[in-house]
UniProtKB/TrEMBL annotation:
Protein name according to UniProt: MFS transporter
Topology with respect to the bilayer: Multi-pass membrane protein
InterPro entries membership: Atg22-like (IPR024671), ATG22/LtaA_families (IPR050495), MFS_dom (IPR020846), MFS_trans_sf (IPR036259)
Transmembrane segments: 28-50, 70-91, 103-120, 126-146, 167-189, 201-221, 257-276, 288-311, 323-341, 347-371, 383-406, 412-431
Keywords for the protein's UniProt record, in alphabetical order: Membrane, Transmembrane, Transmembrane helix, Transport
Pfam families registered for this protein in UniProt: ATG22
Organism: Nocardioides hwasunensis
Domain of life: Bacteria
Length: 450
């Protein structure tokens, strides 16, 4: 009898490639909401709506008197803290289900539905906008936990950096393309639209984009059965919390993952603060108008697409850890250059935006894939819930430092330079991560290049 087993082709790589292509589309889908709504349009719009309802330049937020200009910060902070509390038990639940794609779709569509309520945020009804942005952000955070936990299921250790980087690149491209359309609508105001109407149409389009493109991963991803799930008794909620507590006790067995989480706390907070404060720095310290700032945002978006792909290739040659460390050095150069950037000097400002675009997507994409190598199989969602909780629960450190330094110096230059401490501390902690040991501890295969 002939041995036919050796002639059977291994179809797993083809199946993985199909799932990877489907998975990229979720970054494409949700980035439109992040870019158009969260980054550009929500804050100034809800401030203007709240001002219409303000009495003595104050509105009441759960009984607290708040200035309209501070309202978006309070809302995002509340959503961030709430999501940091809810994500870990959610991650435990996600590790117990094979239907991650359905949860991904459910969170995305619910988030898009909440975001669509922004259409009704007008005529002083800022409360609708508050409910919309809090609900949308909570669902977005939950969907990202599910989405990131799928990465180890559809890519082996050798290809994870490449897959994560491509997904991140697709996200920047999708978010940038819709932002171009929306900014054109806002600038041209066709059909007699007012600025408020154009803004609401733009925010609604981002929610429709998010919901619509989520159908691609929902339909094309496959179900993957849970692996190595803790045996705990009770209903689904009790089992989820039981697994969460078991994992908390077990985390000491993965010291390299914990060290990386601490490093990520610092350098990601530095990245997020640079991005959040860049428009303030450009307008208040450098004297640029809104058109220059918008153009720079678009430049960063499209450069970040290429930057994420470049970093993925570099990781394939030098390893993710060394590539991230190189990116952190570039971030240090960026905040140092910002300290000396001449006022109203457009070319240096655009070059700084170009540099931010190169390292922005790359460092974040590789952080995601690198962390996935350090966590045990079967607990991807739970460990990624801690990853995102670390991101959200501590994201106020950088903005606090930025604000305090500005308060003491009355200048944004030393404030943005102070963020170099976050990249230095993050880099030093990352250097302490023994990649090979961390991968072995987690029971994963060690890639050829680490």
């Amino acid at each position: 009898m002939n041995d036919v087993t050796g002639s059977i082709a291994n179809l797993e790589p083809l199946a993985q490639a199909r799932e990877q292509k489907a998975w990229y589309w979720y970054d494409w889908a949700n980035s439109a909401f992040v870019t158009t709504v969260s980054t550009v349009m929500f804050a100034p719009y809800i401030i203007s709506v709240a001002k219409d309802a303000a009495v003595d330049d104050r509105v009441s937020l759960v009984g607290i008197s708040v200035a309209p200009g501070a309202l978006p910060s309070f809302l995002i902070t509340f959503a961030t803290i709430l999501s940091a509390l809810l994500l870990p038990p959610l991650g435990a639940l996600m590790d117990r289900t094979p239907n991650k794609r359905r949860w991904l779709g459910g969170f995305a569509w619910t988030g898009a539905a909440f975001g669509s309520l922004l259409w009704f945020c007008r005529d002083g009804n800022w409360q609708i906008g508050a409910v919309a942005i809090i609900g949308a952000n909570l669902c977005l955070a939950a969907s990202m936990v599910v989405n990131d936990s799928i990465l180890p299921l559809i890519s082996d250790e050798e290809n994870r950096d490449r897959v994560s980087s491509r997904g991140w690149a697709w996200g920047y491209l999708g978010g940038g393309l819709l932002l171009v359309v929306n900014l054109a609508l806002f600038t041209m105001l066709p059909f007699g639209l007012t600025e408020g109407e154009a803004t609401r149409i733009s925010m609604l389009s981002a929610c429709v984009w998010w919901a619509g493109f989520t159908f691609i991963p929902y339909l094309r991803l496959q179900d993957h059965p849970p692996a190595d799930v803790e045996r705990v008794e009770g209903n689904v909620v009790a089992r989820s919390f039981g697994q969460l507590f078991a994992t908390l006790r077990d985390m000491k067995n993965y010291p390299m993952a914990l060290t990386f989480l601490l490093a990520y706390l610092f350098f990601n907070d530095g990245i997020q603060t640079v991005i959040a404060s860049s428009s303030t720095y450009g307008s208040e310290e450098l004297g640029f108008g809104q058109s220059v700032l918008i153009a720079t945002i678009l430049l960063v978006q499209f450069v970040a697409f290429g930057g994420a792909l470049i970093f993925g290739r570099l990781a394939g040659r030098f390893g993710a850890k060394h590539t991230i460390l190189g990116g952190l050095v570039v971030w240090m150069v960026i905040v140092t250059a910002a300290l000396f950037l001449p006022r109203e000097s457009l070319i240096p400002f655009l070059l700084l935006g170009f540099a931010i675009g190169i390292v922005l997507g790359g460092t974040q994409a590789l952080a995601r894939s690198y962390y996935s190598l350090l966590i045990p199989k079967g607990k991807e969602a739970e460990y990624f819930s801690f990853y995102h909780a670390m991101d959200r629960g501590t994201s106020w450190f950088g903005t606090l430092v930025f604000g305090l330094v500005y308060q003491l110096t009355d200048s944004y230059r030393p404030a943005i330079f102070a963020l170099i401490a976050f990249f230095v501390l993050g880099g030093l902690l990352l250097m302490r991560v023994d990649t090979a040991r961390g991968i072995r501890d987690a029971g994963n295969a060690v890639p050829a290049v680490i």
